[in-house]
Design goal:
209 residues, elongated, mainly alpha, Tetracycline Repressor, domain 2
Length: 209
């Protein structure tokens, strides 16, 4: 699922040109980094003039902030589907971890923008989109926290549960970021590696004091 496509049958708001700009920007940001990309390059990739791009986004920071927010929203929708399956008993909490990892590996540009770019490079202040980014990111994390709470964290006091949920997120992020940043490393079978890492992360969390 790329930014601008449908999730659970719900089309993204906005016209097709706006979605084309977001998709082109995301691709360029993923390939070259936010700093190295200009609005002129984004406009050229879409086949429009730079002034035409500004009719949709006043500057690069606003564009990057919306693309980042979209990435968090896409992840949150995937996790929501997983949690619904978890509540029905159709999957286990480790499957939620694999949903997170799969999102990062199959949508590397979106993942890098959401989790591997410093906030000041996206939105230096709230007016440039900082608050929507934070809200979307927290929603995605809340879903991961909920999944943990439905299983291994249900009986833990809040002061212990929060760092446990954050530690699990950090563990999943560490694997995704390494696989994205070092594709030339002689990794073992990727599916087996992911299965083992996710299983051990949740097993360690379940044994946490």
């Amino acid at each position: 699922m790329e930014l601008g496509t449908k999730v659970s049958g719900k089309p993204r708001p906005g016209g097709s040109r706006r979605e084309e700009i977001l998709a082109a920007a995301l691709k360029l940001f993923g390939e070259h980094g936010v700093h190295a990309v200009t609005t002129r390059q984004i406009a050229a990739a879409v086949g429009i003039s730079q002034p035409s791009l500004y009719a949709f986004f006043p500057n690069k920071q606003t564009l990057a902030a919306e693309a980042c927010t979209r990435a968090f929203e896409d992840l949150a929708e995937r996790l929501t589907v997983g949690i619904e399956a978890l509540k029905r008993g159709d999957c286990n909490v480790r499957d939620l971890g694999k949903i997170y990892v799969d999102f990062g590996l199959t949508h590397p540009a979106a993942y890098r923008l959401a989790f591997m770019v410093e906030k000041r490079d996206l939105a230096p202040d709230a007016s440039a989109g900082g608050l929507p980014i934070l809200a979307a990111g927290l929603k995605a994390f809340d879903l991961l926290r909920e999944a943990v709470g439905l299983t291994i964290g249900a009986a833990l006091p809040s002061e212990e549960f929060e760092p446990l949920a954050q530690s699990l997120w950090a563990s999943l992020h560490g694997l995704v970021s390494l696989l994205l940043a070092r594709p030339d490393f002689p990794w073992s079978d990727r599916c087996r590696l992911i299965e083992l890492h996710v299983a051990r992360a949740f097993a360690q969390a379940a044994c946490a004091p």
